[in-house]
Structure formats: C-alpha cells, structure tokens
Write a structure and sequence with these properties.
By secondary structure, the chain is α+β, with helices and mostly antiparallel strands. The chain folds into 2 domains: 20-358, no CATH class; 366-532, no CATH class. Helices cover 32% and strands 11% of the residues. It has helices at 20-27, 145-150, 200-208, 211-223, 280-286, 289-304, 317-333, 345-364, 369-372, 398-414, 420-434, 464-475, 490-504, 511-523; strands spanning 30-36, 39-44, 49-50, 54-55, 61-62, 65-67, 75-78, 88-93, 107-113, 116-123, 130-135, 164-165, 395-396, 450-451, 527-528. Helix 6 (289-304) runs antiparallel to helix 7 and helix 8 (345-364) packs across helix 11. Mean pLDDT is 94; it is low at 7-19.
Amino acid sequence: MTNAFPLSRRTLLAGAACAPFAARAASAGLRVLVRLDGETFTYTADGAEDLGAFASPAGFTQNCLRATQTRGPLTVYFRPDQTSDRLEVVFERGRLWDGAPANLGPYSAEIQSAGKTRARVEVPRHLWFSRWRWQSDERPVKADISALKSRGLIPPFARRTFARPAPPPKSESYRVMELAGVQPRMGSTGERPDIGLVTEQQARFLCTEARDALTALRGQAEAAGTLPWHMRDERTGAPVDLDTYKTMSWYGDRNVGDPHIDLADTGISIDSAHQPALAYVPYLLTGDPYHLEDLQFAANYNRGALPPPYRLSIPQPRSFAWSIRTLAQAANVTPDKTPRWLLPAGYFRSDLDRTRKWFEATYVESQKPLHKIFRATDNPDNARDEPPQAPGGTWISPWQHEFIVAALGWAVLMGFDAWRKSFQWALGGTLDRVSGHSGWRRSHPSPYRLIVKAEKNGAVAGSWDEAWKLSSVRARWPEQNDALADGDPTYAIYTRGALAMAARLGVKDAEAPLAWITDQLRRQDAAVPYKWLLA
C-alpha cells in the first residue's frame, strides 16, 4: 500500500472546473452508439456540455462532459482523465423534470474512440434512476489503511481479533444492472453482511487486506449504481439540491411533496433502516469520484424519501443511525468546492448540523423518563403487539440504539466534535445496561425488546430496576447479573461495538463494561463479523 493521500473534509482539494480546451482535447473523437428496439442513438463528446473537472486527492484529474439525445433514452457522461489515457463512460436513466418513469429493456452500448471500437456492452435492463459505467481501467488503491484509521476516516477495526471472526460472506461478481450480493429488498430483517458502519467485505479488507474482499467491495461499489437512488437535477448536473427544493419528495404517497418525484417499479426497494454503505470506503481507497457521487446520492435519498415535515424525525433508531452514518461520510470527504456534477461539502455539513441541533433539543435536553433515563429514540406508543413477551405500546429496541451510539461515535472520530454531546447522551443508555450497577442486569445487555411500560396507556418506568422487572417477568429471565445469557450473541456484539467506540473516544466509564462483555463473548466462542471487530 502506498502512503495515504489527504482524504478528509479539511484537506481535500477541490475539484474545480478546468480549461475547456483540456476537456475537449482529452475527449476528442469519443462517441457512444446505443442500440435499443431496432433504433440507434448516437451520443458524442464533441458538442457535449462541459460540467467541469474533478481534481482527485489520489493524484488525477477527471473531466466530465454530458451528452443527451432528443429522443435518446439515456444521459451519457464522457469522463476521460486529463493526465492519462484512462477513459470512463457513465450511462444514466431517469430525469426529474420530464419523462415518465420507465425502466428500459435490453440494449447494447458501443463505445468508440478515434473511430475505433473500445468496447461493446450488452445491457440486460436499465432501471429508472439507476446507472452503470464502462471504464478502461479500475482506479488503483492508493490509500494507506493505517493512516485512514488514525484520522478516524474508517472505524477503529482491530487487526488482532479478540474473538473468532465470522465466516466471510459469499462473494458475487458484479454485472451491469445487477447487485453483487446487495439485498434488493433492503427492508428484509435479520443480520446481513451489507448492513453496518461499513459492509462486511469492506471491514474484512480493512482488517486483513484480503484480495478477494477487495474484489467483492469493488463489485458492490459498482452495484451501488444499480440502486434507483440517483436523483440528479438535469438543470444543474448535480444530485438534486433539497435546500433549494425544500418540499420535493419521492415518498411513496404521490400526494406528498411539491413536487412529488415519481418512481418506477424496479424490483428494488431502498430503506434507510437497512441501507448499506457501499461507496464511502471505495472512495477513500481510490479517490474515484464515481463513488463520491454514489455517496452523495445515497445521503440525499434518505432525506428526500421522507415527507418534508418529517425530515427531522426518527422513524426507527436504525434508520437514524445509518442515515447519520451516510450523511457524516458525505460531509467528511466532499470537497468544499466541486464541479457542477457534485454538491459541495457545505450542503451536507449544513444538513448534519441542522439534524444535530434538532436531536439535542428533542432528546438530549429532554426531561422525559423515556429520554433521560433510558436514552430511547424509539417511541413505545408505536410498538406493535408481540404477545406474550412484548405487548403493543410497551417496549423499545435497545439493540438498534447501539447502532446510534456507534454511528455518532464514528462521526466524532471523523472530526465532527459537535456531536460529542449527543454521543455521550446516547452512550448513557448502553452503559446503564452493561455496568451492572444501574438496576438493569447485564446478563441481558441488549434484549430484542425492553419493556418500559406495564401497559400501553401506562406511564414509562421510572428506573432501570423497574424496567428489568417488567421485562424479565414477561421473558422469564432468571435473576442473574454476572454472566451473559446463553443464546444468539448478535445483539451483545452490537453492544460491544458501541462500547469499543466509546473507549476509543476516551470514555473511561466504558472500559470496564467493554472488558466484561468482551470476555463474555470470548467465553461463548462467539463468531464476530469483521464489521463489529472494533477496538
């Protein structure tokens, strides 16, 4: 690995617009022939719109020329490098301001340069608001993992594991408009290798530098293009600015949002509560702006998928955790100044800061027992009925809370220190469940359901001891405190990850609970996914 290039929000160099001559010279003679349903649509770099160039901190500068066709079904971006013969062509489907949402069937794309065919690609389908690219060469990995870790740009993964690593997930190759193992129905439940602070393949590479893990994470980064979250404003060339269009939404109800952006039935459902972080680590490793774009699209999707009045809300703790994770990633590595085809860092930092102020006012400063004692962000009144252990309207999900602690802790590590107050507030709930001194028995540090009300219309418990009694009676837990209960260790692994993040941030009160739960997981010989091997 080479020395890390300075990828951080403070030191990233801006991708400024370059001289039009340089862009034209690098793209002379480029064209694409798209053959669809017996017709041929020609897109040429000559005469295409210059959207500016991106100066990557990895040491290259990439042009971007946008070509459209009056009747053509796609928007094509020619992206040659200025200082090498590397060529990239991006194919996008979907427009905000005109065109009915519709997926495309099979077509072929022929890429030509100087009158010679560089590549022919058979595309099986093309989804609305999705994209794919052809590149003459992959960007090499140029970042140093140790340097990324020391600057908080990646989570503090352990090179020497305290437990048995979980078996690696099955690797699937990327093919155009496919998903390389990413779950198409994101809302499906259960522990999955694509959900977490990073994906399992990314974490495995960051821990081991295994070549097959690098191949897998690259494939899933390309698969991010398949996901229908690429809401680009054709008027500006960048992901749509939701500060400009404050009431725009692509929420499922067509009566929500002004304007409402219609989606097509793609067979893929995106869910912020299960959103994988596909693009951030690949961008850190390579400086490839294609991945930075996908990171911006993902962060923007989470915001636009909510009705405008509920943008500052927490539908589920895990949706807040992964949305903050993605937003902080975008705010951290986006340059202050960008070419037209990207949003600037200030856009994401403003959203992050607005969210922080709302979170502090709503939760951190709240005097309600639900927030002050239990540090909960989920509302038990909305909890569904799960008899006999968890009656409707009585419970919260502390295992999801651990995602918030980990995500906020990582935001602080990245350099967003203003989030420390919220992180410490959220961490209090985790510490109380593992300390052994709050009244909650640490044999069950992160139960699937934690009862905080005796009945739906009752008052929230006034102490952890009261909540333990309500929960343990329903679940028939034995009265023990010093050993982790047998069973699925998954949720305890999340708790350990949250505590490890706290210890990394210097929270002394987290050290003893971290040592205890680490020892308990070791005693159980728990298989820990790489993405939760935090130290």
